[in-house]
Structures are given as structure tokens and as C-alpha cells.
Design the sequence.
């Protein structure tokens, strides 16, 4: 039996997973849209991973999670380790590219930059208020232009006169795009302009004040857009490296971290794929026990309370427990 490790990256737009062995060999990998349902997406991912591993002599003995829903899915899967995205992307990139100095990452609704010096993270930043330079913004514009977002890169490379699109705000960018289309810009020029606006927004927001030095690696789903890659190279003046597994880096590192964790303390039981058949629900409630008025989130496993988040004291947890018990009695 070959011991393997399952890593999850549960983002706002997509949910990714990989299964690796002790030598970091990939045994399975998958990528699904989250569609506002991280639990449902996780179940689809688990089902796909199970199908890929059928007939193999593989046992998953460690699980790690990262991404915006890492805590939720980590609790559901009883993950061995849960890490934030900055740590995951930095550790993963350095494992494969030890000489890297700048990590650019643009995901579905967030983007980040990580500055590395001699293998040590010395600075980082994430977008805070606006999604104008992210994958969700590109997706919305692809629907507006009636062009699959996967084809954006090819369109951008055919542009002869890119349009200047305001990229500091989603609302302004969309109105500018409509205006430029109305005055006759081609779709190729509009998309090339969008790619450049995304890069300018990223550099003026996330990368503001950061020293961007080569070697530079570009990760996240948007890194697969060759138009955005070209725009980065033109604006920063350096070659941009796109890792083949860049969109899976978070999941990859989660698996590696799980492997390291298991090496310290062995997992009691192998991962149970039947977890996809268990009903998980989240129920929100206001505590109201004191002026803090904590917003409490209850995680239910087959109707039973699995975990409680958001409470600042034991009162909130006790109220959540009583609420779940009362509902179960009514049923």
C-alpha cells in the first residue's frame, strides 16, 4: 500500500485538490468551480479524486487545506493541517523554484504578491476592496463580450491597437469597456486593453511600493491567460514564468504540509471517501447574550453539531448547542 496525501485549495471561484506521494509524485488532481457552495464543490472534488484512484494501491493518510474556505472544509474533512494562502503559495513556490524573488498570484476574487529574499518571505500584500484585477472580473467581462474566458489570451495576442480601459474600479472598467465598444474598438483590442488594465490595477494596488525583481513567477487561474502574462512582461520589463501547476500550487502545498505533519504524528485512520455522502450544513444565528452580539456559525454533520465559530465566549457555543438540539427534537 502506497501512502499518499490529499491537499485542498478551496477558493471563492474554484476548488482544487491534488494527491501526492512521499516523493511529491502526483497521483490525482482535479479542479472544479466552487459556485458559492464550497461544501458541494468539495464533495464533487472528492468524488472525482476517488474515481481517479480506483484500481490503484493508494491510501490517503494525510489531509491539508488552504484557501478562503480552508477552516470550514478543514473541519469537515478533519484535516491534519490548515494553512493560509500566503504561507501555502510561498512554501510551494520555493519548493519548486528556490531562487524565486517575486511571486505574483491572481485568483478568482483575490490577488496577492509575495516578495522573497534568499528563500525567506520578507514582504507581501493582498487586494482588499476591489475585484477589478481578478478572475471574477475577467469572467464577468467574458459574458459581456460573449467570448469564453479561456479564449481571452488568444484574442489579446491578436490585438493591433489595444484600448485603454480604466482598471482601478470594476464599475468604471465596465462602463469604459461599453463606451470603447460603442465607438468601434474590436473585441481583440478591448480584451488586450482589459488585460493591461488588470495588470495596472494589480501593480498600483497590490504591488504598490513593492520591489518586483526577477526571477518572477505568476500563479493563480489568471496566469493561464497569455494576454495577462504578456501585459505583465511589457509593463514590468522582465520575463514572467508561469508554472504548469501554478493554478494548483495551493493544493499542492497543502498536500506537502499534510505529509510533513503526518511524519510528525501519524494519522489514526486513512481518509474515508464516504465523507462525500455525509450531509453537512451551516446554520447562522445571532447570540444576543451581551452587547457583542456575536454572529455564530454552526457546522452540522448529519444534523449533529460538529463545530461552532464566531462566538467570543462559551455562552455563544452553549446557545448554538441548545438551538441545534431543539431543532433535532422537532424533527
Sequence:
Amino acid at each position: 500500500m502506497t501512502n499518499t496525501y490529499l491537499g485542498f485549495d478551496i477558493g471563492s471561484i474554484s476548488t482544487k485538490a491534488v494527491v501526492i506521494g512521499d516523493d511529491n509524485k502526483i497521483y490525482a488532481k482535479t479542479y472544479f468551480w466552487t459556485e458559492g457552495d464550497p461544501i458541494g464543490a468539495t464533495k464533487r472534488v472528492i468524488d472525482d479524486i476517488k474515481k481517479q484512484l480506483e484500481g490503484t494501491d493508494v491510501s490517503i493518510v494525510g489531509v491539508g487545506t488552504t484557501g478562503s474556505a480552508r477552516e470550514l472544509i478543514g473541519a469537515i474533512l478533519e484535516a491534519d493541517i490548515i494553512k493560509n494562502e500566503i504561507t501555502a503559495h510561498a512554501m510551494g513556490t520555493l519548493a519548486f523554484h528556490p531562487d524565486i524573488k517575486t511571486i505574483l498570484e491572481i485568483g478568482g476574487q483575490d490577488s496577492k504578491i509575495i516578495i522573497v529574499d534568499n528563500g525567506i518571505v520578507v514582504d507581501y500584500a493582498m487586494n482588499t476592496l476591489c475585484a477589478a484585477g481578478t478572475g471574477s472580473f475577467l469572467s464577468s467581462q467574458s459574458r459581456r463580450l460573449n467570448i469564453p474566458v479561456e479564449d481571452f489570451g488568444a484574442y489579446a495576442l491578436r490585438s493591433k491597437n489595444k484600448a485603454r480601459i480604466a482598471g482601478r474600479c470594476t464599475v468604471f472598467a465596465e462602463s469604459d469597456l461599453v463606451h470603447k465598444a460603442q465607438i468601434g474598438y474590436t473585441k481583440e483590442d478591448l480584451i488586450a486593453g482589459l488585460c493591461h488594465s488588470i495588470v495596472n490595477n494589480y501593480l498600483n494596488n497590490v504591488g504598490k511600493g513593492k520591489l518586483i525583481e526577477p526571477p518572477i513567477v505568476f500563479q493563480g487561474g489568471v496566469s493561464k491567460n497569455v494576454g495577462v502574462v504578456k501585459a505583465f512582461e511589457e509593463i514590468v520589463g522582465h520575463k514572467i514564468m508561469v508554472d504548469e501547476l501554478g493554478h494548483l500550487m495551493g493544493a499542492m502545498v497543502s498536500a506537502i504540509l499534510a505529509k510533513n505533519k503526518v511524519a510528525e504524528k501519524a494519522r489514526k485512520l486513512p481518509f474515508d471517501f464516504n465523507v462525500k455522502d455525509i450531509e453537512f450544513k451551516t446554520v447562522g444565528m445571532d447570540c444576543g447574550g451581551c452587547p457583542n452580539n456575536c454572529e455564530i456559525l454552526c457546522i452540522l454533520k448529519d444534523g449533529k453539531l460538529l463545530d461552532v465559530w464566531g462566538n467570543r465566549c462559551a455562552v455563544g457555543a452553549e446557545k448554538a448547542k441548545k438551538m441545534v438540539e431543539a431543532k433535532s427534537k422537532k424533527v
